[in-house]
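Q: Structure tokens for this one, please.
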Amino acid sequence: MMQKFIIQKIDAIPSKANIHGQDAKHISKVLRLAKGDRIIVTNGMGKDYTAKIADISPENIALDIIDEQDSLTESPINITLCSGMLKDKKMDFVIKHITQLGISEWIPFYCERSIPTPDKKRLGKRLQRWETIAKESLKQCRRSRVPKISMPVSFKELLDLSASFDLKIAFWEKATLRLDTLEKTPSNKNILILIGPEGGFSKNEILQSSEKGFLSYSLGPRILRAETASISSCTLVQHILGDI
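A: Here is the predicted structure, written as tokens:
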């Protein structure tokens, strides 16, 4: 099954579009497609399109966009994952894998035990890199919606953002509530998952989250790395609530 390619601006059907750069080289040199072959493209916002190659070179793929369809690969559950800030490569790892899982939004945040705050210029570059990683991961897993990625926020700002969610879960190594007690209900469509940094949450932070309606759950008796907990928690919640 062929991977998808992203063309963000598709105005009408039928229409014409072009793919440049590394994707063009991949289509021509690696996939070895030819004029007349068809590929699937997405606008990254939930729509898929069938496109026919009108002309091909390693520098440019000219396409005729011939039809449109709703995506069949997006999750029916809207999960926003909030990750305590980690070192660069670990954050890259998290966004790559949660994109594949189908997470809707990712919000990094700072709390008591997270890494020091980089300057705004460096943060901007990290955000750009995360967005690039998400798009590359989307093409590989055949999703059709690029997850929304926010600039890192403070723990207080994150709690203030949580009011609109149906279900709010904070995973904490000292929690006693087991995830297998989580019930699948029609109202649980917009879910916020909170994962702490290396070292986890402080007791005070868990108390603050509880005051905002978060439920504290355990991921089992073993202490997981923060990036492992991010991926495991999303997978388990998706499974329990009817996606995976």
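A few notes: The helical segments are 21-30, 88-101, 120-141, 155-161, 203-211, 226-240. The first strand starts at residue 5 and ends at 6.
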